[in-house]
């Protein structure tokens, strides 16, 4: 459930009519609902309320500092994968002891930064990384809590670009080698084993792969404890999927996911961490855009909108479906026609949807691409020299720009011409 609903025929974000935001901020623009973000975070929190736990929001999904502050103030921890994300979480007021540092390629500089400023745990992904972290921690005179991300070799049954738990993916260490890796860590100075980490992929719409992975983690917990390692925390990753098309069968909900966790690892007495991103932010955001032209092609009509693949890359990159709806509700009984909804970027891949049935639309009409809150703004670029898309947060009947649209001058002024070219 989200808080983007029609009222009197106009799509609202909570109590704010979206046309008001379009007038004020212009389009394209991302609009987030605070109530939806909080609701989704609390669903996970409640789903794990049977034991000690921390829901660490995956910052990569939507990393605006205002969103992090909203969730952090509600008690969320954060899962970060770079110093940039770590600094965003800290700028939002999230204490270091609620921040988990994940990622396959942490640099020495990033390690030094988080160790100096406080971190809950570092999820290690390889042996060279653990040796480097041991050296850095020792030099800094600290001991850092660590887990190892194990790769359980299960098929997450999701899009190949976002599956991470198969043995041929770059992530984690093979679960079969976990014992020897933990044995080496136990000998390394500056590292303190606290648990095990696993993450098998994103947009999972079936609980079975989670169950398989968590069962393997439970078995491994027993083995590692018998070897003398203090496994007291399990980081079970993110990945629960969301309904992108409202017509689809609904994927499992957080309470069902929490139940699977309880059944598979609840008996171990561990503190549970999870790292959901998409389910918290995805349906809490829309991308609002205006039509520029309606162009009749041969056998198909194109709706050319002012958002493009640089603003929302998911359809071009993963063939992802996003529901696209008019901001002014279509009256019942209105004839619809199929449109290809495309952006202005000079690539055929700049297509949001093909043959989407919509009521006839004209220049300047507003439409919303739904479920765009996760992996939307964060993956935006300036391709075709289109300024980064702004972001707005709505809460109740208030709204605020949480990232302004840069001016074209600001965008261009970041480039510098070398002296030798200016002298000519
Ligand atoms: N933890 C780790 C270690 C991750 O790699 C990810 C996502 C998450 C948590 C959060 O997963 P979520 O709950 O959001 O599924 N850009 C792609 C998704 C990439 C996901 C990357 N890792 C997309 O637009 O579908």
Automatic annotation (TrEMBL):
Cross-referenced Pfam families: Orn_Arg_deC_N, Orn_DAP_Arg_deC
Residues that bind substrate: 278, 314, 318, 347, 375
UniProt catalytic activity: meso-2,6-diaminopimelate + H(+) = L-lysine + CO2
Keywords of this entry: Amino-acid biosynthesis, Decarboxylase, Lyase, Lysine biosynthesis, Pyridoxal phosphate
One of the protein's GO biological processes: lysine biosynthetic process via diaminopimelate
Active site, renumbered: 346
Residues of the Orn/DAP/Arg decarboxylase 2 N-terminal domain: 36-281
EC number from the UniProt entry: 4.1.1.20
Chain positions found as N6-(pyridoxal phosphate)lysine: 60
Keyword Zinc-finger assigned: no
Domain Orn/DAP/Arg decarboxylase 2 C-terminal, residue spans: 30-373
Necessary cofactors: pyridoxal 5'-phosphate
A single MF term (Gene Ontology): diaminopimelate decarboxylase activity
Binding-site residues, pyridoxal 5'-phosphate: 239, 275-278, 375
Record pathway: Amino-acid biosynthesis; L-lysine biosynthesis via DAP pathway; L-lysine from DL-2,6-diaminopimelate: step 1/1
Chain's role: Specifically catalyzes the decarboxylation of meso-diaminopimelate (meso-DAP) to L-lysine.
Family: Belongs to the Orn/Lys/Arg decarboxylase class-II family. LysA subfamily.
Xref: NCBIfam families: lysA
Subunit text: Homodimer.
Protein name: Diaminopimelate decarboxylase
Classification lineage: Bacteria, Pseudomonadati, Pseudomonadota, Alphaproteobacteria, Rhodobacterales
